[in-house]
Amino acid sequence: MISSPSLSAAQHLDTDWLDSLLSKLSQFGALDNGGVDRQALSATELDARAWLIDEARSLGCEIYTDSAANLFFRRPGRQDLPPVTTGSHIDTQPGGGNFDGCYGVLAGLACLKALNDAGITTERPVEVAIWTNEEGSRFAPGAMGSSVFTEPDTLAAFLNVTGEDGVTFAQALELHHQRFPGLAQRPNRDMAGFVELHIEQGPLLEHLELPLAVVSGIQGVRWYQVQCQGESAHAGTTPMALRQDAMQLARNVASAIEASTLNPGDDALRLTFGRWQVTPNAVNTIPSRASFTLDFRHPDPAVLAQFDARIAGLAGDRVSVAPLLSCEPVVFAPQINQVLNATAQALDIPCTGLLSGAFHDAMHLAGHCPTSMLFVPSHRGISHNPAEYTEPRALHTGARALAGALTELSDTI
Amino acid sequence: MISSPSLSAAQHLDTDWLDSLLSKLSQFGALDNGGVDRQALSATELDARAWLIDEARSLGCEIYTDSAANLFFRRPGRQDLPPVTTGSHIDTQPGGGNFDGCYGVLAGLACLKALNDAGITTERPVEVAIWTNEEGSRFAPGAMGSSVFTEPDTLAAFLNVTGEDGVTFAQALELHHQRFPGLAQRPNRDMAGFVELHIEQGPLLEHLELPLAVVSGIQGVRWYQVQCQGESAHAGTTPMALRQDAMQLARNVASAIEASTLNPGDDALRLTFGRWQVTPNAVNTIPSRASFTLDFRHPDPAVLAQFDARIAGLAGDRVSVAPLLSCEPVVFAPQINQVLNATAQALDIPCTGLLSGAFHDAMHLAGHCPTSMLFVPSHRGISHNPAEYTEPRALHTGARALAGALTELSDTI
């Protein structure tokens, strides 16, 4: 069971207002194809931030920023305790959709309005965060804002990161400061809990015909580059027995990895060979070099370690492997998920547990305070694409669950 | 047995002079890495042609050209009959070597000098041809010169072909005419026989430790483009069972083609998947499209037809196939090869029969007059590369065999 103020907050969620916020935000950087290009700290994103700051002020929020240009819209509670925070990001991929990140931020604002409309004063402050540069599309890597918030020492390494436009992250932060000179710094980094509401970016909820998931954690990830050597030679004159075809070797290595790794009984396992490069890549020349990337994901550190060992064992005369990325699995806070599940139950929202296969700002927050996520369905799992879509009904359901849960958490955590 | 003038011509071959010609030609378009860039009808190639015309004049040759700027250096015979012709090309790939084509032209000139030095007058004229644009690197397709010589109607379709420098083949022909305005047109297209001496561009002669091959024909070739469709999706969020990975499909299709086509007992068969393209080609995205090219070669029309049927049978919902090129096998003239083998035997040159896996101008000539080829070894089969190399000894052996064979043919064919 959840408290009656929590139920009331959910019931007061203004779905029309949420729809209008989504519609307005989609105009900042709108593309002709219905998608959006809103790069982190670009002029377009600063315009969107200015609009959102105005909306938050209208709701009576305190506005804060920090050294990574994260924004915090805080609705005060009865006590000046560390807040319960929600939020996500509003930067997008170059040809992105209108829900990835944006939905979590705007649903957060709709929760603050619901608390206003229901006349509720929570015990702790409730806060909406806009994390800077989650996509990593202008400045690599992604999730810089949440990384700096949770580990301020990481900022130094990001300052000289330069986007394709020649602008450094440091310069982009300075432009943000010039645009919003009056914003106060967040008084400290305290946070009682963090809940990120996001589109699933995968097909499972739609497949299960469920409107909501409580996320149990984020999969661990390994990226490798596998490179195979051969010898370039004429496709017509070189007998099959005298060839060293690098791409044939690469295909065989990929098949061997599939055979040793795939496990039809393991629903959590993900294995993708996404990027391939062949040299010289000519119709009538035997490939001299072929490389491919491996993206492997699993929630179990033991399975990840076993995979690492197997990949290391591939290296040989004609095969080399190089790690590109390694992220350990994240387990979200059970005490948060208990509240998320109770809220869904109280609101009669059918709900399942799910692992996140994608990265989110919540990944960094999980090391900072009790953290979890809620997912709503993504139509056909499509994301980072103008065709990204979630039915309004599911968007409303997710936002209601968030309103109830934030209220409940602010009083109980 | 071959005649004593044929033996005498072979014995008079001036190998030092041949070496000096190879060395001089390599300076036209020389690259720092030891290779050469001498594009068809470029200023560099015209300079090389001017030098070769002077050399041919010094040997007492009549010089002819034709509508495709092919050059013919003719040493008159006792009678004004159709000549026995040899030759090849002097254009190169952008990063080509110093033997592909060049060797055949210069060895031909060395044969004319050997006839002079031996004081031989042949029955028929003996002629050296320089075919225009064999490589197809400036103007596509290749072997334009020999194509137009054997089928003049093909010229019309080539005139508007434009190189990367914006120059059309017609303009390049006009520049050739301006550079060599005094050249007579070849009186007709008559030719009693054609023998092309060339480097193997494959590893077999070196592998067999033999200095010479009599070429029995040119393999038939099929080029196909196979395209596989999938669905782009997030590598982390999309369960294995819900994926349509285009590259996984492409790898499986390639393996199935290998399994059904490769035949370890068939030395003549060649199968190459040379060019691969993956979309969107990102580490963490399941490929939505993957395509690869097939290069299949075989001397037997029935095997080629069987392969065509098998490839056509691959097409389906998610797989499409498009033919890119189809060339029927060429069988060289037995009466020419009889003389080539007899000459090698008379000169004590160990020799084998070989199929050509690569295209040559002789492919077009074979439809015009009795035609064949001789191959000398290519070190490690390397060609179209600055590292292209044939030992001087093998170059000399090949040229001697050619001198003997041309003399024999001019008196007997």
UniProtKB/TrEMBL annotation, chains A, B:
Residues 217-315 form the Peptidase M20 dimerisation domain. Zn(2+) 1 binds at H89, D100, H198. It holds the Pfam family Peptidase_M20. The keyword Hydrolase applies. Its cofactor is Zn(2+). Keywords: Hydrolase, Metal-binding, Zinc. The keyword Metal-binding applies. One of its GO terms (molecular function) is metal ion binding. Belongs to the peptidase M20 family. This is N-carbamoyl-L-amino-acid hydrolase.
